[in-house]
Structure formats: structure tokens, C-alpha cells
Amino acid sequence: MTRTATAPRLGIRANLAQFSLLVAVNGLVGGVLGQERTVLPLLAERTFHLTGYTFLLTYVLAFGVTKAATNYFAGSWSDRFGRKPVLLAGWLVAIPIPLMLIWAPSWGWVVAANVLLGVNQGLTWSTTVIMKIDLAGPARRGLAMGLNEAAGYIAVAVTAMATGYLAAHFGLRPAPFLLGAAYVAMGLGLTGLAVRETHAHARLEATRHTARPDGRHDHLHAELTNRQVFGHTSLREPALSAASQAGMVNNLNDGLAWGLFPILFATAGLSVSRIGILAAVYPAVWGLGQLITGPLSDRWGRKHLITAGMLVQAAALALVALAGSFGAWVVAAVLLGAGTALVYPTLLAVIGDVAHPVWRARAVGVYRLWRDGGFAVGAVLAGVVADLWGVRAAVWVVAVLTAASGIVVAIRMYETHPKRH
Description:
The protein has 421 residues and is mostly helical. Helices cover 79% and strands 0% of the residues.
């Protein structure tokens, strides 16, 4: 007796087992990223004796450029080859990363490891986003993205704190990166053995796709070419392009937090363990907050949450620049995490709202190209400004850019939620 494939159904509840598995897989993806948050800036300064913030931030630049480019290809490849093969490829790329960080004899090895990390994160995180949008269907995209991003960034936070503890007690190498190696092994095993393909769910949704009543999306046809998808997501379509610039600025300030905050805190005399706590608080609030903000965007709509989130982030960055104590920086980290939580899953939900299911994976790839390009822009901008005028000046510049991005969203984006426009 031959086994027949189960017909795909849309909805989180209808696909709860696979959806939950993909949440866990994305937690492991976040853990691979989190192994670097606390340790790498300190490794640059104390082991490799790097001077000059621009040179120190080369690893953030390498990560941002490769992740941004890989995001774009992950979207088109997942349509061409299927979601699961792309996810599996991302885990295979991750295998040498912890080993390179453990044994790196020079900073060039660290930069090379971050090139591989960018490819890993682009393939795995993009694909888990696409797969959850496939499974969830149109009704609960905000909730789906909130759960996805929460899993990833809670794992970043937990791993940042854990690696800070390991580094304080056992040294900067190898203990913190052994945790990353365990994440890679688990992610590869779960993906190979248990994750199932979701492309059929997107095709099913395409057959049920209905036009927006106000006719706003009538020019966005199912048969768009790759070039047209890139143009609409980057510039032409107001909501998609506003989301892309907001995503870029959001990750610009995340790149600043990743690369320069530990150095700022260290120069203020904080211990490694306290730096680890600060490195964890921001992504922890970001991660947990998305469990609230994702579903909230399904009830209240997308636009105003994004605008508010960018302005809260700007205020948090201003507080980082002004403060000089552990307590004040904890408050700033909480605010920065809360602002990012308002923005992060909601921007992905906007892409899912506007893009047709046939080219949605490619739109996600283009959006994530711009969003994660913010790491590279942030690394260069923050590094140059910090070298010229100091770390606090770099934080002020990024705070102003973040506030301006929120104003652009308020002016250019329209409400995209199907029940709120």
C-alpha cells in the first residue's frame, strides 16, 4: 500500500507540528549568531590587539554584505529548488564557523568566518521566514513572524549571556564557541530528519488570492519578473519600499550595537559579565516583545507600530550616548529592544500582506537584502564616525537616522493589513 501525501492546509493550527519545529530551528539559527555578540569585540581588542574602530568592524561589514546578498538569492532559490534544500544548505555552510573562531590565528580568519556566517544566516533565517509565511496563510502573518523572530532573538540573547559567562570563567576561546558548534549540529539534524517542504502551501494560497478592495495592488500581478519584484520592493511600491528602508536603518543600529556597544561599555569600566548582561538584555526584550507585537499587528495594523518602534529606538540610542552607568544602559537596552520588537515582525508582515504568493519569497529576499545591508552600512558609518569623533558621536548619528526613518514610514507607508486598510 503506497502512502499518499497529505493535501496542504493553511493556518498555524493546521500546521502546528511543522510550525513549532521551524520555530525551534530558527532558535538554533539565532544561537549561531548569538555566539559572537559578547565575545568577538573583546577578542578583537584583547587577543588580536586591533586599534581603530573601522578595522574592528570589518567582521560586521563582512557579515552584513554576505548575509544581504544571500537573502536575495535565498528567496529566488527557494522558489526554484524548494524551501528545505535551501535551509539544509545553510546549515552545511555553518559547520566550519565555530572551529574557525576557536582556532583563528589572525583577524582575517575571523572575517572569513563571518562571511560564512552571513551565508548561513541568509539561507537559514530567510527560509524559515518564508516557510512560516507559507504555513500560516494570510490571517495570522503578524503572529507567525512574531513567533519566528522571537525564537531567533531570544536565542541570540540567551547565547550572548551564556557566552559572556563562559568567557568570564573559562576565557574568550574555545568555550563560548563550543556552544555554537552544538547549535549547528542540532540544526542540521532537525532540518535533515524532520523539516518538510512548504512550497505547496504557497501555491495553494496563490489559488485563493483575492484583490484588495480599494484596487491599490491591481498593478502587482502574479507574473512579475525578478527585476520587477526588485523594483517594487526597493522603490516603486510605497509600503514595500518604506518597509525596506526601515529594515535597513533598523539593522544599521543593530550593527552599531553589536560592534561598538561592548567597547563603549568596556571603556566605562564594566566587567565582561556585565557587558554580557547588556549584550543580552537588548535582544531578550526584542525577542520576547515580538510575542506581543506580532499578534498585536494583526489586531491594530502595521503602520503605526512601525513608526512608533523606529522613534522609540532613536530615543534609546540617544540615552546610550548620554548615559555612563550600568543602570542607565540597562534602561536604554530595554527601550532599544522594545522599539525593535515593534518593528521587526511587523515589517515582515507588511511584505507578506502586499506581495502576491507567487513572488512573495522573492520579495522577502529583496526586503532582507536591504534590511541586512544595514549591517554593512552601519559598520562603515559607525566605524568611520567613531574613529573621527568617538563612539558616542557614532551613536548620536545613528539615533538621528533612526528617527528620520520613522518619519519616512509615517509619510510614505499606508496600512497594509487586509482587515485594517
